[in-house]
Specification:
The chain is of the alpha/beta class. The protein contains 9 helices and 14 strands. About 25% of the residues lie in helices and about 30% in strands. A hairpin with a 2-residue loop joins strand 3 and strand 4. It starts with 5 loop residues before the first strand and ends in a 24-residue tail after the last helix.
Length: about 290
Amino acid sequence: MARNRQRGGRAAAPETVSETVDGGVAELVPDRERPRAWTLLIDGAPQSHVDLDDPAHLDFAYQRRLGHVIDLAAPPGRPLRVVHLGGGAFTLARYVAATRPRSTQQVVEIDAPLVQLVRRVLPLDPAARIRVRGGDARAGLAKLPDDWADLVIADVFSGARTPAHLTSTEFLTEVRRVLTPGGHYAANLADGPPLTHLRGQIATAAALFPELALAADPVVLRGRRFGNAVLLASAAPLPVAELTRRVASDPHPGRVEHGRELADFTGGAAPVTDAAAKASPEPPPSVFRD
């Protein structure tokens, strides 16, 4: 665990914690601008940012977009039942607990050594109703009852790629089963030019959900840079106008596509099945350079 050593009667800044986990080398790097805040990296790829003093602070743009989804999933303060596929440093589970007290949350994370590291260095609030299950995301989802979740958030990366079996219509059929009739599914997707993976994921979601929206940096949507996009899907109408306003007013403004514009963006891509599923593309090395 990171410790603050005393130097001349003053506490030194916390040091980076580095350990080998199932997914590679995990580093918890202290944020020099926010006391008790840390960034999690796996093999050099940023995964999560956590501020223990302010768990409602979301540092990454894609996590802020997912935060907007959480905020708009129900009236302010109403508890939610949330499934997080992929744990990381539990950033979004902490956010839900801080902004919607009494929410019930299930986190499914396959990397047990990573869970142990995060729990030790960045402990969860013991009063939060967050249960962490070990195992594969899709297998964990299959264990949940029908119509249980108000929100399912998929943020699963093996290294920097989403595993193939979490990209198919069969996977989203399980998501749809677990969601309540008005529940929302939100996925963090990563892609770059020519955006084949992203278009395929939109088409796959459209095969299961009638309502879709996509939030991303305009440069990513134009296929000029590798980056993240947040896909939102539901059987019920989505709060598109308010989501659009929030995404546009972000410190890193994004754009929301829906309806005909999103269908045009998808460009006739076909839904992905288990038989044809592939992992998301490997990010270029330049993505993680300072």
